[in-house]
DNA sequence: GTATAAAGTTAGATCAATCTAAACAATGAT
DNA sequence: ATCATTGTTTAGATTGATCTAACTTTATAC
């Protein structure tokens, strides 16, 4: 059974693989806030276990076994976040830290029960897909709000990143997933967008923010 | 912050203190399934932290600081068990193993929320008291079923031990906490007791079982 | 009271996960 | 092609939690 540390490395590798191209040791060590030698020795360990492809000085990647293991940890993480929000009333900005710990609990029954009680949710509170029991992920191709044009009416469905601060910021603007947004105008100079939503809300969102908001055309 | 291992030692020491007299290293090492030298070095470590009283070759005991810490871990354990049973539908025989892990999660908010959602329960699914936020425990003085006499009508309120097997056994006899029991007869030779309950259930319980069932006179 | 048994301690090793310092390899800029 | 920068690896140490083997102290039994 993978240790807590091993599970965190697998998860980090999976995430890095999905949002960048080649993974270097330094990416991994930075993401996990450990030194490169630490990451290096853990990668060797995971290699021994057949979970990562590794050759000296080459980029790192997960084997299919590794991908599956990683997906299952991510499944536990996201089910937990969803459970904390839906069943325990936590705000979406509070749940990541807790899930980071709960994801390591060894009890298939616990996560199966969360899944059932939640009605087999497909996404977590930040709009990220929840892998199924076999580690399969249904990738949706969403658009960034920043790519929308004036007049577009779209639904906010997910976030590309969900730091505490970003979530707090969205809270302060009353922005939440599922919301319909109207793009009023786009400033070509800096990419600022004016959007309106919820009857009488109107906000100017920076390009930096719009890049992180994923939307779906109805 | 106490590590997972440290928390387990504190909890073991607390439990040993409440159900035996003097605590020897061997009791501790046996309870935690580690070697005596391992327990010995951990006890020294906890002593350094002011959590246990320790002098070479003398019995071990928790300091008041240690007792409080231990109680708070037990609080987390029992709240978790209660939450799993009441809110997630687990059987009382399934929850100990999960709680053994969840009790180490560092998130006061998680346990506060469990407590609220449960309506600040005073006892866990096995009838053991849940310490309050300050680690205070309300000790109830229950009677053992084995001390009851024919004709007694009492309520089953707690268990002195709750191993998986014992809980399964109780399940098979449809015995659960809160139930009213009538003592029909007691066999003086071996202490076997005939009890009736739930309209039409009638069972002979061994002395071994009756010792582990705690009851309250209405 | 001494011998034996039980319980506790010390010493020394291991293993996972981490670190720093130093050496080495690949890249890419002149 | 050379060299500097960047990224990777090795070496060696540390810390927490564990172990076994050997030794010491305390308790128990004749
Ligand atoms: Mn998360
Ligand atoms: Mn984690
Ligand atoms: Mn328990
Ligand atoms: Mn535990």
Describe the protein's architecture and organization.
The structure is a homodimer of 218-residue chains. The radius of gyration of chain A is 19 Å and the shape is globular. Chain A starts with a helix and ends with a strand. In chain A, helix 1 (4-19) crosses helix 4 (64-86). By secondary structure, chain A is of the alpha+beta class. In chain A, the strands form two sheets. Chain A has a six-stranded antiparallel β-sheet with strand order 3-8-4-5-6-7. In chain A, strands 1-2 form a two-stranded antiparallel sheet. Chain A has helices at residues 4-19, 25-32, 36-48, 64-86, 95-102, 108-117, 164-172, 207-210; strands at 52-53, 61-62, 143-144, 153-159, 180-186, 193-197, 201-205, 213-217. The longest helix of chain A has 23 residues, at 64-86. Chain A binds chain B through residues 84, 87-90, 94, 97-98, 101-102, 105-107, 109-110, 113-114, 117, and chain B through 84, 87-90, 94, 97-98, 101-102, 105-107, 109-110, 113-114, 117. One manganese (II) ion (MN) binds next to loops of chain B. Chain A binds a DNA duplex (30 and 30 nucleotides) through residues 3, 5, 24-26, 34-38, 40-42, 45, 56-57.
């Amino acid at each position: 059974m993978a240790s807590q540390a091993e599970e965190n490395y697998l998860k980090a590798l999976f995430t890095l693989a999905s949002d960048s191209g080649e993974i270097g040791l330094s990416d991994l060590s930075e993401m996990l806030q450990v030194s490169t030698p630490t990451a290096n020795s853990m990668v060797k360990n995971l290699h021994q276990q057949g979970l990562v492809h590794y050759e000296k000085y080459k980029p790192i990647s997960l084997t299919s076994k590794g991908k599956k293991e990683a997906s299952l940890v991510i499944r536990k993480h996201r089910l937990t976040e969803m459970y904390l929000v839906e069943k325990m009333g936590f705000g979406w900005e509070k749940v990541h830290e807790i899930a980071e710990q709960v994801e390591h609990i060894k009890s298939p029954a616990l996560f199966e029960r969360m899944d059932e009680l939640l009605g087999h949710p497909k996404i977590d509170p930040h709009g990220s897909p929840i892998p199924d029991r076999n580690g399969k992920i249904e990738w949706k191709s969403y658009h960034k709000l920043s790519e929308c044009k004036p007049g577009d009416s779209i639904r906010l469905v997910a976030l590309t990143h969900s730091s505490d601060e970003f979530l707090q910021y969205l809270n302060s603007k009353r922005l939440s997933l599922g919301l319909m947004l109207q793009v009023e105008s786009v400033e070509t100079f800096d990419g600022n967008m004016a959007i309106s939503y919820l009857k009488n809300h109107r906000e100017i969102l920076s390009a930096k923010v719009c890049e992180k908001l994923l939307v779906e055309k109805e």
